[in-house]
Amino acid sequence: TTDFWQSGLLLRWFLLGCLFMVISWPMGFVMMATGATRFLIFSQTVFNSLHVLAVWVLLGLMGVEGTAIAFCMLYAFHILLVYGIARYLIGFRWDSGVKKMISLSIAAVVAVLVLGFLLPILWMMISGGVFSIIVGLLCLRALVVRLGVDHRISNKLMSMPVVRLIFR
Fold first, then answer.
1. With the C-alpha atoms ordered 86, 90, 93, 98, is the resulting torsion angle positive or negative?
2. Angle (deg, nearest 10), helices 64-90 and 37-62
3. Do residues 80 and 92 lie in contact, with contact meaning Cβ atoms separated by under 8 Å?
4. Each residue of 133-163: pLDDT tens digit?
5. Residues 6+ away with beta carbon under 8 Å from 116
6. CA nearest to 74, candidates 18, 149, 153
7. Is residue 121 classed as helix, strand or coil in its secondary structure?
């Protein structure tokens, strides 16, 4: 129904927020692994307090879509917060490959998000499908490169004609 269509606006922001969550959560485990409970309690208190505040403010300003934007904004902030803590605790830094992967992932999700706002529904679905196929193939390629061509999973993937095409 047209009422359900409004949830698509929320899902776009939640998608970007979930990408930020995937980036930030592994760094958050540094606090648990090092036994830095004070940092863990501090970071979660700050994060949850800001989340409640952002939802309250953005809900009043933008309606339900504001809650999804708050989720996205807060996980972007969460990356910075836990990165700073992980860097302080263990000298954590992303290498250039990870930075490149994060940048490309964010760029792809933001591109789809922007296209979703600019294009009519049919073109939005087509462009989203094309982006999904391209990103999926690039991820398969990256997996094969990381595992090595002799790995059993790589051999299975390379038996698919579509995957073989991206290695030419």
1. negative
2. 160
3. no
4. 888 888 888 888 888 878 888 888 888 887 7
5. 8, 12, 124, 128
6. 18
7. helix
